[in-house]
Design brief:
Layout lengths: L2 H6 E7 L11 E6 L2 E6 L3 H8 L8 E2 L2 E2 L2 H13 L4 E7 L2 H14 L2 E4 L2 H13 L7 H7 L2 E5 L9 H6 L14 E6 L16 E4 L5 H12 L8 E2 L2 E2 H13 L2 E6 L9 H15 L4 E6 L6 H12 L5 E2 L6 E2 L6 H6 L5 E6 L14 E5 L11 E4 L9 E4 L6 E4 L10 H11 L1
Helix pairs in contact: 3-13, 4-11, 4-13, 5-10, 8-9, 8-10
């Protein structure tokens, strides 16, 4: 390869993908004149987002192009004049979230993530009764019974490839040694068919009834007798067979995606998962696993917890972090008009719609961010893991992966923009 081609084309291996909580770190990315192509190991989501050609844009004030410095000054003025800002979205990496925490402390802001409803469903269970969770590596190397409760992992395209149907499992665990069970409605179970054709067990029920199924399984593994013929449309004999398999498993896992359990009091269903797991550990090894963390959700939650002592949905208006899982949701504080400005951050995803409220709004987003209104300030930002390096926390919260820079970007990172806002304030 001559000098000219070296300059215009580059190949980067072992690239982590920042676009879902699995954080696959084996992508091979080709860069030709800052046009990217996924050469190996890309799922449809990774290919679309790495390879999308983004339009050029500039910072804007009320829809009009302005220099970046003017947009930052305007954002500073909005936050200075705000009594209680809301900083939400929080689609950024660890360093971006660390700067957000400092800005929230200085401005007395409320913090919430765009996936806050999903995050809080898990948090309420952890705070109330605790849980026993596992990791991707443990499932890959040990699990012989995997119960997919209300999710088929479609939003995490390489979950089966990376975690379940893999060829690198320790302890000589073979694909035929694994049994997959789906509980729920309208789930795509094709990925649960193992490479040798073994089909999964499917218990069809409405999402709202998953808690009934799990509660019944909990009762059966504890030795209770259920004097009914079926539960949520599933025959009691089918549940009895599954209960025995759960007790006999060498390493069982219940997998759920809190973002997909969009039902009233979803935390009670998750609590059922966790309490069933706890009871099963009397007989064998069993654990829970939560699929989530898209758009930097686990990074935002982790940074907020280790810096404030609380998970997200904290208010710094009182001079110290005040936590309330319900009151400080984005929906509630906007509806009740408890905030007087909004800073929305989304550097991974341009399809997440920014809330439109009748308060001054600042948006830090990707170049092609879709807005159905003109915010007071719009500042385009670069994407972690493509345009700049960084760190991001995986869905199981046990790994913080370093992100790579694979192209040049004319835009600053969320961390850089917020640092300038803090310094000017």
């Amino acid at each position: 390869m001559d000098k000219k081609s070296t300059i215009t084309a580059a190949m980067t291996k072992d690239v982590p993908c920042p676009f879902c909580g699995i954080l696959c770190d084996d992508l091979v990315i080709e860069n030709k004149n800052d046009k990217l192509k996924v050469i190996e190991n890309g799922c449809p989501k990774a290919i679309a987002l790495f390879q999308e050609e983004l339009p050029e844009t500039s910072a804007k004030i009320k829809g009009k192009d302005v220099p970046l410095d003017d947009a930052i000054d305007s954002a500073c003025n909005i936050l200075k004049n705000s009594h209680t800002p809301l900083i939400a979205g929080l689609g950024t990496d660890v360093s971006g979230m660390r700067s957000v925490m400092e800005l929230a402390d200085k401005t007395g802001a409320i913090l919430d993530h765009m996936h806050g409803d999903a995050l809080i469903r898990n948090t309420l269970v952890l705070q109330d009764l605790g849980w026993m969770m596992t990791t991707m590596a443990e499932i890959k190397n040990r699990a012989d019974l995997i119960i997919m409760a209300g999710t088929d992992a479609t939003n995490f395209p390489r979950f089966y490839e990376r975690v379940i149907w893999n060829e690198q499992s320790m302890f000589k665990l073979k694909n035929d040694d694994r049994e997959i069970v789906y509980i729920g409605n309208k789930l795509n179970t094709k990925s649960g068919v193992n490479p040798n054709g073994k089909r999964p067990t499917v218990l069809n029920c409405e999402t709202e009834q998953i808690g009934e199924i799990i509660s019944s399984l909990h009762a059966l593994v504890s030795g209770a007798v259920l004097d009914v013929k079926e539960v949520a449309g599933v025959k009691i004999k089918t549940l009895q067979i599954l209960a025995e398999k759960m007790k006999a498993a060498k390493y069982g896992v219940i997998v759920w995606a809190p973002g997909e359990l969009d039902i009233p009091h979803a935390e009670l269903t998750i609590q059922n998962f966790c309490e069933t797991v706890k009871y099963l550990t009397r007989f064998t090894r069993f654990a829970g696993f939560s699929l989530g963390g898209n758009d930097g959700a686990m990074s935002a939650m982790g940074v907020c917890a280790w810096q404030s002592g609380y998970p997200l949905r904290v208010n710094f208006d009182k001079g110290y972090p005040d936590y309330d899982a319900h009151r400080y949701s984005t929906h509630n504080v906007l509806k009740k008009k408890e905030v007087d400005s909004l800073l929305w951050i989304s550097s991974f995803n341009s399809d997440i719609h920014t809330p439109h409220a009748s308060i001054p709004t600042i948006v830090l987003g990707k170049e092609d961010t879709k807005l159905n209104f003109k915010p007071e300030v719009f500042i385009p930002v670069s994407t972690p893991g493509i345009d700049h390096t960084g760190q991001i926390i995986r869905t199981d919260s046990v790994v913080s992966l370093p992100l790579k820079k694979v192209r040049q970007s004319p835009y600053s990172s969320v961390h850089s923009i917020i640092r300038q806002v803090i310094e000017r304030m």
